[in-house]
Amino acid sequence: MSASPRFPAEWESQSAVLIAWPHEGTDWADDLAAVESTYVALAAAIARFQTVLVCVADAALRRRAADLLAAAGVDPARVRWFEVAYDDTWLRDSGPITLREGEGFRVLDFEFTAWGGKFAAGEDDQLVARLHAAGLLRGERERVDFALEGGGIETDGAGTLLSTWRCLHERHPDLDRATVTATLRDSLRQQRVLWLEHGYLEGDDTDAHIDTLARFAAPDAIVFQACDDPQDPHHAELQAMAAEIAALRTADGRPYRLFPLPWAQPIREGGRRLAASYANFLIVNGAVLMPAYGDAADAAAAAVIAAAFPGREVVAIDCRALIRQNGSLHCVTMQLPEGALA
Hints:
The chain is α/β, with parallel strands linked by helices. It has helices at residues 32-47, 59-71, 91-94, 114-117, 127-133, 165-171, 177-187, 235-247, 297-308; strands spanning 14-20, 51-56, 79-83, 97-101, 104-111, 140-147, 154-155, 160-164, 192-196, 214-218, 221-225, 257-261, 268-269, 272-273, 282-284, 287-292, 313-318, 334-337. The chain has a single domain (14-337), classed as L-arginine/glycine Amidinotransferase, Chain A. The chain contains 9 helices and 18 strands. A hairpin with a 2-residue loop joins β13 and β14. Pfam families: PAD_porph.
């Protein structure tokens, strides 16, 4: 009998991280040079530890991206390429969610609606199927007719899922909590779902994705975005979220070890505030890549993440260009578990 599928935690061994290179046909068109610099830094950091699988729209974009990575000293042996159409580059939300199934894998392909129909999503909703059809992803592809983004869920790898009710309710306003909980539990093969009622960031158009707010660092540890400024409009909401997280219990009934992240000073552009969360980090083999914002709190955030992930190097990536489009580092990446990349 084959083993039941299991949703691995992000800190488990990985084969690659998937990204999509920005180009003039994406939302990055007006700020392409700055965001390409961020992508070069991100790809270079990933390639220090493992393979980076780069989606490109065409051969010309592949040549451009390859030249930029070569100029940055990135080992070409650590880079793989895939030419495919995509609407935008938020692969945390349009990319594959991979379950381990015995010695193999099951690739979940949820419906991607661009955060509830806010943007075009026709190409992005086909991305997982195209990656799988090209033979890049090992295992059976399972289409799930339920709108869900990878940034909206966190797993501890041991059967506990963490999410925000605000996000899932926005996606499925006609479904009650019991139905949404059962769908997540069954499709992602989880034993329980923990819901947060509070938490949001101005400038975030995902309806409070959990990966901007709170992240598992171990089955008994949660890193979360705190706010210690009583004058900040986020203060009451994030204090309420912190209290909720403190009240959560592990599967065996213990309080979680908690790692509150510092609060960056507001970053505003064009009359709006941008969503600068330190919780939007990416775990890779041997390291945690952390979004940095040119703020005095960057160093303190790195120290918290280092404490939460002992033995891993913390690598800061300047993400000020990314938050101009309402996301950050974790949002533009999707890890593939060890062995899942064909």
